[in-house]
Amino acid sequence: MLEAIEKLLILQDRDRKISRLRGELGNIGPERQALEAKTASSQAALDVARQRSKQLESDRKKLELEVESKKQAIERYSLQQFQTKRNDEYRALAHEIEMARRDIFKLEDQQLELMEQAEAAQKEAAAATRMADEAKKSADRQMADLTAREENLKKELAELEADRDQLAAAVDASILPRYERLRKSKGENVVVGVAHGVCGGCHMKLQRQVMVTCQGNQEIVSCPNCGRILYYTRDMSLAVAE
Length: 242
Known about the structure:
mainly alpha, 2 domains, rod-shaped
């Protein structure tokens, strides 16, 4: 194998590692946002549960006030009954008293229902509190892990990029620009093998003369179909796969 090809393969391997690390670093942000969203969702559920509990307590107190108001009304009507001497007024007051008592029964039923709902809401709020606490603790741990991983990835990336500069400087100046252009257009697979008579990049069948030239290891050979740089090693079979 040509020394130039060997250097390009080493450079290509370094570029692949750099690309992988950059991809991992690029995922850190979305992972962090997902954790924040999960924590916010748990907190929002807790806020809703607490607000529900508060609202039920407020509704219960309003009913208590209404019951008390009805009782006071009954006391007034009873006093007016005692004071009146007219039968029609007495009957009218008796009707008002009966209506107020019925209202009290209804209000007390509503109170019981609200008390049951409030008890269930308190349990839901307690469960939501536990879930929110657990979610925050878990998120904090994962956030710390993400931060540590991010720092390690940045450090490793900086080392690889510095090493990459040295490797690129060692490549023949007449070949490096071609490699860089191909890397921008073709991605990670720029220097590819010719096993089974096809280009390892575009997988198109190669002419016999191209394969023979690669096998000779005397010059840089490009795929006539995609332009990638080709190479051959002894463990590669030039026989076309059927």
